[in-house]
Amino acid sequence: MSDSRERPGDRPLIEAVAAGIAHEVRNPLNALQINVGILEQELAALVPDQKAHVYLVLAKISSELTSLDNFVSEFLRYARPPRLKLEAVNIRPLLNDLAMFISPECAKKGVALTLSLDAGPVVVVVDNFQLKHAVLNLVLNALQATPPGGKISLSTGGDQGQLLIVVRDTGEGITESALAHVFDVFFTMREGGTGLGLPITRRIIEEHGGTLELSTRAGAGTTATISLPTKPRA
Ligand SMILES: Nc1ncnc2c1ncn2[C@@H]1O[C@H](COP(=O)(O)OP(=O)(O)O)[C@@H](O)[C@H]1O
Ligand SMILES: [Mg+2]
């Protein structure tokens, strides 16, 4: 398997590809989505039977367009990362909000999500939105890898100068050979995965001057640890 990790000097090419995709793919894709919506509406007058095969076909087209749109949006987020907007943020409400957002999905799958947010620094200088996105990616990966009856914990730690955010799951874990590639762009072992979640997450954390580490045991679970300086260097 080739190493598709980003190398110094790759950026201008990635940005040029992104500009092409934004224009040549996203615009027609949006037009297609709008037209499928119009077709659905007009068809209702012609084919009243909602179970007719044609509706299944349209639903399939619509769902494939949505997947493609998600992929394009995620690729553009990777290729054209927004600048960090740093501000002093209270980390506990940020993580609490995120847990509230994801807990219905966890409950639906029968996975227990526990929070332990009392340790470590409370206020950190971060980009609120981007940090939330990074942690959410890790929690989503944990959820996708954890079977019903399993557990995910989200906890904080660290000291004055450094905040740790730890996402631990009791899921399937990652084999040694896959672990060597999980930060490669487009590496995915999931059906419907984009392979962009971990590269985006790591980039966000590194832009804050922090690190993202994964430790895992196949069959036993995975721990993702974000380490962030409480105040990134200017
Ligand atoms: N917590 C986890 N447990 C097991 N496997 C994981 C976990 N997090 C990531 N992975 C593996 O790393 C791959 C890449 O993850 P990611 O970059 O988020 O892309 P995607 O989620 O779209 O596949 C996943 O397909 C999965 O195989
Ligand atoms: Mg992912």
Query: Structural class of the helices, strands and pairings?
Result: alpha+beta
**What count of helical segments does DSSP give?**
6
Domain count, please report it: 2
Round the mean pLDDT to the nearest integer and report it.
93
The CATH topology of the largest domain? Heat Shock Protein 90
Overall morphology: globular
Walk across the major sheet and give the strand order.
2-4-5-7-6
Give structural notes:
Helices cover 49% and strands 20% of the residues. The protein is an alpha+beta fold. The longest helix has 36 residues, at 11-46. Bound molecules: adenosine-5'-diphosphate and magnesium ion. The site of magnesium ion has 4 residues, from helix 4.
